[in-house]
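Fig. S4 source data, part A: sequence.
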Amino acid sequence: MQDLEKRLKILESEYRQIYEKLKIDEKVAEAAELEKQVAEPEIWRDIKVATEKNQALAKLNAEVEPWTLLGAQINDLRELMELGGLDLKDEINGQMSAMEAEMQKLKKALRFNGVYDASDAIMRITSGAGGTEAMDWAGMLERMYLRFFEKHGFKATEIERTQGEEAGIKTAVYEVTGPNAYGTLKSEHGVHRLVRLSPFNANNLRQTSFALVEVLPVIKVDTDIVIDEKDLRVDVYHSGGHGGQSVNTTNSAVRITHLPTNTVVAIQNERSQLQNKEKAMEILRGKLAQMQMEQHAEKLSDLRAGESAGWGQQIRNYVMQPYRLVKDTRTGFETTDTEAVLDGEIDEFIDKFLEM
């Protein structure tokens, strides 16, 4: 039993340190206050505010509950050890092993400690130069990420999508919701390069294609990123593409330009101009937050136009000819199973980036 007692003391000590570091007691109190607020009938008169509070409560509970549950289990195990004898050794050992495994799982989640890691994410995939070949590559990446979202329980809502003339996509924008969506996906931000024998080339020559993946945090509350109205230019125009006759007969599409940084966001998929403007502002806040992190700027006024990572930051190579290899240029992690990667098995790439 001495070995079990030692293991329990280590587990208790580790648990207390993390519990205090994460300020779980404060978050429990915050969740209780939010629960009172969403229980009030009056709050539901403003559906937007009520929904945001409800989502905040759900995220707090998702963060807090695993730690409070583990704490209760550790206390129960302590009591069991004090009451039991050698006849309970196997049961205690089994429970201890399960709790140690849960602790390792929860500690892994602590990697998401960035300011926006718990936020939902906007993912934008854009094909590079190269016509159909590049558009097909962007479409392959879109499928890879959609498979990854499906496997991990993330919900992906299409915001905008433009198909290629022959294959693939010119661009696709998704809002991805789920626990630590931005923290999970931020590793994918950058240029992805493909080398393969082109299926669109009559001579079947080896072709190199590029696609840009942008991952932005969803910042719905404008107090987090305060943008001065005088720094914005808002243009409205006719929406194009699919959506029915009403889409093309009203000026519902919105293009917002942040003048100091020359950052442009255009949205046309929502039904109304107001909805398009709200979504464009949400994406703009994410873009500016991403620029702040990349430039290590304390405030928006410190941002410099044209100095954030874009087409110049190549993060991953996908080689299908003359050999098979997917390699991350930042971590050095690689695998020869290109088919699995393109089917959404990118967990190890994400893990290595977060560990780094």
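Fig. S4 source data, part B ends here. The radius of gyration is 24 Å.
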